[in-house]
Design goal:
The complex is a heterodimer of chains A (about 850) and B (about 100).
Chain A (H helix, E strand, L loop, with lengths): L5 E6 L3 H13 L4 E7 L5 E2 L4 H5 L9 E3 L1 H6 L3 E4 L1 E7 L4 E6 L20 E4 L2 E4 L3 E3 L12 E3 L3 H11 L4 E5 L3 H11 L4 E5 L12 H13 L3 E3 L4 E7 L2 E7 L4 E3 L2 E4 L3 E3 L2 H5 L8 E3 L10 E3 L4 E3 L7 H16 L13 E3 L7 E5 L9 E7 L4 E8 L2 E8 L5 H10 L7 H6 L18 E3 L4 E2 H9 L6 H8 L9 H12 L19 H11 L4 H8 L6 H14 L13 H5 L2 E2 L5 E3 L10 H13 L4 E4 L5 E6 L4 H8 L11 E6 L2 H4 L7 H12 L8 E6 L13 E6 L3 E6 L2 E2 L3 E2 L2 E6 L2 H18 L6 H8 L1 H8 L7 H13 L21 E2 L11
Chain B lengths: L7 E6 L8 E6 L2 E7 L5 E5 L13 E3 L2 E3 L6 E3 L14 E7 L2 E5 L1
Antiparallel strand pairs in B: 1-9, 2-3, 3-4, 4-8, 5-6, 6-7, 8-9
Bound molecules: flavin-adenine dinucleotide (FAD), protoporphyrin IX containing FE (HEM), iron/sulfur cluster and FE2/S2 (inorganic) cluster.
């Protein structure tokens, strides 16, 4: 007989709630039946990485720590999207109500689903981990359209979405989070102004001098900073924000407002349930509230009069609480935390810990200033220990200082070592000396012991691998230096993580090595590459990239396994959101004829094509076509494929040029047609869109194409490469000026081949040209500095010769079912029984 | 005899599915994607991607996974678990016998 499990109810599924459950499971897997309430409709994610989500360096899905499967695997019942409203201490049940999907999870009056049944969970123990909500200083007009807070994934989504409609955003609050919000907003293409009520930025972590230097740095990044501004009113016109009014009478025009002016603990559930609440839920050193069976952890806690707003104290609290609750160490105590922070803003190096100014007469202050580089370092030493430090502009020693500060260890008598590293290069702090329980990554709560294990047992010998294995270094990143030192100490040397340079994720080789191996072993199919170079392990995410490379390497000889193609390339059409396809016939240079148009029109009618549209590339797009109609339409059209669906030469559009235009200097139409006849269907790392213009007025936008040719005075043609006018806009770089159409064709082909051989998979020419630099490319392609021009010319010629119109497969499908709709299965014919 | 809730359906010759690809079948009112890996393994899942109903049978598959052709969410073909939190697809038991595909409902 197994003893009845005790039931533990956790309220709040954020950083603290999820962490404490992990700590409990580590100590006693089967002790408790665990139920969690989470007001947000998700599993648990790493809130501190929201800054990265807002600035676009990580996607929301990357910051999840515990996916829903984790709860299931550990037998945890999660009420996601349910807010606990009361703890009925008489009956010992927690009561919750489901929130509407669009409800603001942390709002006091978060909207509940009307008439939904309440959720009730009985308990033996409760842990409250409700965290906090953003504080909004009193001002008129906050709430509603255009005003935002910065706390959850939903907040991030909404800010990013709304920013698209704005030119200017104001961030109220110049603290750690406000700065991160401002930097994040910048990546959404709005101008940003930070409004701070105090006379300086980051008043809690910086002294006035560092505050001023930080302000200069931030302003250099293009963010405006206004201090001593107290917003009194948000003024709207026609429902949209127009401007802000300040207490001093001044105003600021803006389109949106993000408030990040501090946080307030969420403690209502404790007050309505009769627990002692002061500024937050009052807890003793064992994280117990005024009710012995109810505990609290995280930002909702007031411990010894202090409330914390960072994750580091939470990790410590969670450990103590897990020790106490599981009986692992019933005497464990939490005695408070020391705080250190790092600003996670791209382009600003800033770490701060402890006091910002001396407070006792004997405090020793060490300061180093280098205004020309924006460097400021300050150290406050008390009793030969670090009482506080600020590092701005250069934070190399931050990780070490933080360790010493947290451990309260005695410091080197040469204080300069602490700010710059020791003169001899010997480590200021030997990582060997740190105990295994010393926390290295404060953001994710990873100890030296865990990292050591990853290095020695998990064989993680690069900083990125250790991060992948333990999450160390994936928060603010300030511990990466220490992680590297640990790798050096326990594995001998740090390996530069190669996987970022792999051509495709599933084969551990860079492009040049991969090409060499493929050639050496004569691998002509994707499955052969997996077999020979990936230990037989197929990786679907690598198939398409490999297929593209192999086709380039073995023109005419490539063993074309159709399963390695993306659907568009299997059926030679572009898949649409509803699973239908589009048909774009080739129209050389954008010039068609009445007969051709008539045929296209007839086909569109015959197959009930829902939409016929001109594309930006001077083509006709027949949209909404069923898969099984594709081959029939191609046959009826009798025009080759326009390749609008694949990573290859797409189009060469043209302007009317000398034929009709009164400005024309060169025959742009003829050249475009020649280009298109020559290069149609040539595969490349990414698509190539081209244009020719008859004069620099550039009506066909040739300056912003992957390759463009522009006619100039004197019968000359300028060739531009690396232009873009999609999501990225870039004017192409002038490669060279030539005298004839033939020379344009030759140089364009040579560049294309070089790009085909050296571009990374899915690297557009605008990235490629920027990565290599136009001078380098010009040297190779025009000046032939490497002596490969003749080979490149021959290779592209071979690719041109190997071209076959894929729409010819209309007559003979390449494989059975290539163009079939879902097949109707005959359910009545039961094949056999299995009873 | 068939147990009350499982039925086996013959989807016809294995050759209907090109090596390494998937193919969709309409079974009563659901579309089911059947995948035939190069190593001979067969998998079956619901055809509609839980994200935005992309046709999974048209995705690139291999190594026990499929990538949706619309927005590249990934799914484990054996367990149905998706790469994105909250997303998973229904899987079905499928096998080959005498060159025919047998799907269990
Ligand atoms: C953008 C951002 C960046 C940050 N960066 C850093 C950083 O770099 N370093 C650092 O140390 N800290 C950082 N922080 C602070 C850190 O995220 C918090 O200290 C930490 O998340 C607090 O954890 P918690 O579990 O107490 O609260 P939370 O993580 O907020 O979790 C509380 C959860 O409980 C839910 N909840 C509330 N009430 C109820 C209820 N009645 N019923 C059910 N569920 C409820 C809430 O919706 C929430 O999901 C950052 C915070 C933000 C917003
Ligand atoms: C699935 C989504 C898309 C489809 C089906 C699609 C399809 C097309 C097609 C068929 C053309 C005609 C020209 C050609 O054949 O190359 C075209 C042109 C163009 N597309 Fe897209 N496209 C898509 C997404 C995008 C996106 C995301 C961008 C921007 C980042 C973009 C930018 C352009 C531009 C700028 C042109 C004009 C090219 C020119 O003038 O030559 N397209 N698109
Ligand atoms: S680019 Fe020059 S030649 Fe071509 S249509 Fe415009 S003005 Fe005329
Ligand atoms: S529909 Fe499948 S990923 Fe979007």
């Amino acid at each position: 007989m197994t003893p009845q499990k005790q039931k533990l109810v956790v309220i709040g599924n954020g950083m603290a709630g999820a962490r404490v459950v992990e700590e409990i499971l580590k100590r006693a897997r089967d002790r408790f039946e665990i139920v969690m309430f989470g007001a947000e409709p998700y599993g648990n994610y790493n809130r501190i990485l929201l800054s990265n989500v807002l600035n676009g360096s990580q996607s929301a899905t990357e910051i999840f720590m515990n996916p829903l499967a984790w709860y299931a695997e550990n037998g945890i019942k999660l009420h996601a999207g349910v807010k606990a409203t009361k703890i009925d201490r008489e009956r010992k049940v927690v009561i919750g109500s489901p929130l509407k999907k669009e409800a603001l999870a942390y709002a006091v009056d978060a909207a509940a689903v009307p008439d939904a049944a309440l959720v009730e969970e009985s308990y033996d123990h409760v842990i409250i981990a409700t965290g906090s909500r953003p504080f909004v200083p009193p001002m008129e007009g906050f709430g509603g359209t255009g005003t935002f807070l910065f706390r959850t994934i939903d907040d991030c989504d909404q800010i990013a979405e709304y920013a698209k409609t704005c030119k200017h955003a104001a961030v109220i609050g110049g603290g750690l989070l406000g700065l991160e919000a401002a930097r994040g907003l910048m990546t959404h293409g709005v101008e940003v102004t930070i409004l701070e009520a105090a006379p300086q930025l980051m008043i809690a972590q910086l002294d006035p001098e560092a505050g001023q230097m930080l302000r200069d740095t931030i302003e250099d990044m293009g963010i405006q900073v206004m201090c001593e501004k107290i917003t009194t009113k948000i003024v709207r016109e026609d429902g949209r924000i127009k401007r802000l009014d300040f207490k001093d009478g001044s105003t600021l025009a803006t389109d949106m407002v993000v408030v990040s002016a501090g946080i307030r603990p969420i403690a209502e559930i404790a007050s309505v349930s009769g627990l002692t609440v002061n500024k937050a839920i009052v807890c003793d050193d064992q994280m117990r509230t005024s009710d012995r069976s109810i505990f609290a952890v995280g930002e909702c806690v007031e411990h010894r009069g202090k409330i914390y707003g960072l994750v580091d104290p939470i990790w410590e609290q969670a450990k103590v609480l897990a020790d106490v609750l599981t009986g692992f160490n019933p005497k464990a105590e939490y005695l408070g935390s020391k705080l250190g922070t790092k600003l996670k803003v791209m382009g600003v190096e800033l770490a701060s810990m402890g006091d910002t100014k001396p407070s006792l007469p004997d405090d020793e202050v060490v300061v180093y200033r280098e205004p020309s580089r924006g460097v400021y370092k300050k150290l406050i030493v008390r009793d030969n220990k670090i009482a506080g430090a600020i590092l701005l502009g250069e934070t190399d020693t931050a990780g070490v200082l933080m360790q010493m500060f947290m451990a309260n260890s005695a410091v080197s008598s040469r204080r300069a070592d602490l700010l710059f590293g020791s003169a001899t290069g010997a480590p200021v702090l030997s990582v060997f000396d740190l105990p295994d329980h010393a926390q290295i990554c404060n953001c994710n709560g990873v100890t030296k012991g865990a990292i050591k294990e990853a290095i020695m047992i998990g064989k993680c010998h690069s900083v990125a691998k250790v991060g992948g294995c333990t999450k160390a270094g994936l928060g603010c990143g300030s511990c990466k230096g220490l992680v590297a030192q640990l790798i050096e100490a326990y594995a001998g040397e740090v390996v530069d993580d190669a996987s970022e340079h792999y051509y495709v994720p599933g084969v551990a080789l860079e492009k040049s090595q991969l090409v060499a191996e493929i050639k050496r072993l004569g691998l002509k199919s994707v499955s052969a590459v997996f077999r020979e170079l990936a230990g037989g392990k197929e990786d679907p995410a690598s198939k398409v990239g490999l297929a593209s490379l192999l086709k380039t390497l073995w023109p005419g000889e490539y063993d074309d396994e159709r399963d390695a193609r993306f659907i568009n390339d299997r059926v030679h059409a572009n898949i649409q959101k509803d699973g239908t396809f589009s048909v774009v016939p080739r129209i050389y240079g954008g010039v068609t004829s009445p007969a051709e148009l008539r045929r296209i029109a007839e086909v569109a009618e015959k197959y009930n094509v829902p939409m016929v549209k001109f594309t930006g590339g001077q083509r006709l797009d027949l949209l909404g076509v069923k898969k099984d109609d594709l081959p029939k339409m191609w046959k009826d059209l009798g025009i080759p494929s326009g390749h609008a669906y694949t990573k290859s030469f797409r189009t060469c559009k043209s302007c009317v040029g000398t034929d009709f235009c009164r400005y024309g200097l060169g025959d742009s139409i003829k050249l475009a047609q020649e280009i298109e006849h020559r290069f149609q269907g040539i595969e490349s790392p990414h698509k190539m869109k081209l244009a020719t213009a008859g004069c620099p007025r550039n009506c066909s936008e040739a300056y912003v194409k992957d390759l463009g040719a522009v006619a100039i005075e004197g019968g000359l043609w300028e060739i531009y490469i690396g232009g873009a006018a999609g999501g990225t806009i870039r004017k192409g770089d002038l490669l060279c000026t030539v005298k004839s159409h033939d020379e344009v064709l030759k140089l364009m082909g040579r560049f294309m081949q070089y790009y085909r051989e050296h571009g990374k998979y899915l690297e557009r020419t605008y990235h490629f040209v920027e990565r290599l630099g136009i001078e380098t490319i010009r040297m190779i392609v025009v000046e032939d500095s490497e002596g490969i021009a003749a080979r490149l010319d021959a290779a592209i010629q071979q690719a041109v010769d190997a071209y076959k119109d894929p729409w010819q497969e209309a007559a003979v499908p390449a494989y059975p079912g290539q163009f079939s709709a879902p097949e109707l299965a005959q359910v009545l014919e039961v094949a056999e029984n299995n009873g | 005899m068939n147990t009350p809730n499982t039925r086996t359906i013959n989807l016809g010759s294995l050759d209907k599915i090109p090596l390494g690809q998937g193919r969709s079948f309409q079974v009563e009112d659901t579309q089911i994607a059947v995948f035939r890996q190069r190593d001979g393994k067969l998998f079956a899942t619901q055809n509609a991607c839980p994200h935005k109903q992309g046709p999974l049978a048209e995705g690139v598959a291999g190594g026990g996974k499929v990538i949706c052709p619309l927005h590249s969410h990934k799914f484990d073909l054996a367990t149905g678990q998706g790469s994105e939190p909250h997303e998973c697809v229904k899987t079905y038991v499928v096998r080959e016998a005498g060159g025919e595909i047998l799907l269990q409902l």
